[in-house]
Each structure stands twice: as structure tokens, then as C-alpha cells.
Prior knowledge:
Blueprint: H1 5-17, H2 20-27, H3 31-45, E1 50-52, E2 57-59, H4 61-87, E3 90-95, H5 97-114, E4 119-124, E5 134-136, E6 138-141, E7 150-161, H6 165-170, E8 174-179, H7 191-197, E9 205-210, H8 213-223, E10 226-230, H9 235-239, E11 243-245, E12 251-258, H10 268-283
Amino acid sequence: MQVSLPALRAFDAAARLGSFKAAAAELSISPTAVSHHISNLEQRLCVTLFERAARRVALTEVGRELSVATCQGFQTIETAIENIVFNNKHIRVSTTSSFAGLVLIPSLHAFYRKHPDVQINITSGESIDTDSYSLPIRFGDKARQNEDDILSSERFNTFCSVQSVHQHERAEHLTIYTTEWKNIELPKVPLQAWLELNGLQNKPVTVKTFDQELFGIQQALLENALVFCSATLVKSYIKAGVLTELNTKAVDSALCYYIPERSKRRNRTNVNFVEWLGHIIRDS
């Protein structure tokens, strides 16, 4: 049976407030309109919902039963609306520690300048959130991802501090920090391909590894050493004049950053954030 939503709204307000007049004030309509809605509802249901007296109304037993249902129903709707409004202003981002620390966090001030009402909450970890208001930014094998989900295809090169670049270019022996992934299913860092591309395959090289690119970059900075890593992660350091790229050719990798099932995670705020994220990856 179909009943009028405004009539249910009028009934719910009158039942909660115990007054047609108070219900009218809450709904910004006239007491006559409230009475009309409720009378129509009673006729539709073939029941009496209120016992009416000169200055007051009281719910009948049937009215109390319906009041419980309408109160719960409208509270559920209001809660859902509040959650939607909240989630449109809050984005939960989960990603790798390296991407969070080297790309996202240093750039957030630029996003907040454009979207001051949005709050970004960042966590690092391996779990993938499933609701549409979360954005899992993952690092993985490019060949296994949907092309539409990919944010960036990673290129690798060797980097060092600005003051040590000439020292490393003249060095007879190279010590390079790089990454050996904890996740053995990830494609390996393309160090050997880089050495061959640059004719360095026969040069003495000592390779030291961490399980996250962030640690190798930090250690290279501390020691004025070389680090072989994703170009995406060191863009902010290069822009700030802290790191520079060796005069060598970068090599493509089988790795990428991506958002799993990206098309299912669309709301206005998420779209704005992903567009901004693509911009800083490409241009920062």
C-alpha cells in the first residue's frame, strides 16, 4: 500500500511532540495542513491514529505502533544523510609508507588551499578498504591492473645529493641503495636493466637494500650515497634542490601506483582528490 511521505512526516512529528500545532511549527506548515495529512493517512489505512480532544491529541494503540516504525525509519534516513555529508568532506586514504611520506603528505597543503572544507586522513598498510569513500592507493604489477585504475607507471633512475653528484660520476666503484620488496610477488626493481641501459653492467657495484624505498632514499641522503628508486617518490626532493638525478638514462619498470576498482570509488570529493593527485604525480 502506498501512502504519502508528507503525511507520514506530519504524523511522526505530531506523535513525537503530542501536538498538531507543534508539528506544524517543526515542519513549517499550518496546523490545518498537519490535520489534513493525518486525516488522509487515517482514511488510507482505515484506522484512527489519534484520540483528539479540544487542546490535545493522544496516540491510539495503532498510532503508537506506527509511531515506533516512523520514528526509527526517519532516524535511519537522517543518519544516512549525515553520513553522506560527512563522508563527502572526509577522505580516508590508505597507501604505502613511501608514497604517503614522500608524495602525499608533503603536498597536502596545496590540496587544502583548493578544498579547505575537506579533511584527508592517511594511513599506511596492506588492507584494501571496500567502501566508496575510501581510497586505497596501491603499488603493484602494472600487467595485473585495469588500465583505468592506474595512476602512474613507474620509471626508475639513480639519484644522489646535489653536492655529491660529480663525485659519483667520477667514481670507479658504485654503492647503490635500492629496494628488495617484502612482497615477493611484486616485480623486482629494474636495477640490472638500468645498469645495462647505461653500459654499467661491468662496473663494480655494491648493492644495499631495504624493503621500502623510503628507507633507501633517507639512507642515501644521510651518507651522500646513491639511491636507485622510483622517480615519482623523489620529485619533491628534486624540486627542493635536495636530490638530483645522475646523468644516466631512466628505465621503465613493470610497477605502477593504482586505485583498485577506481570507478566504484566515485563521489565528488574523491574525484577532485584523484584529479589533484594525478596532477602532482605528473607535474610536481
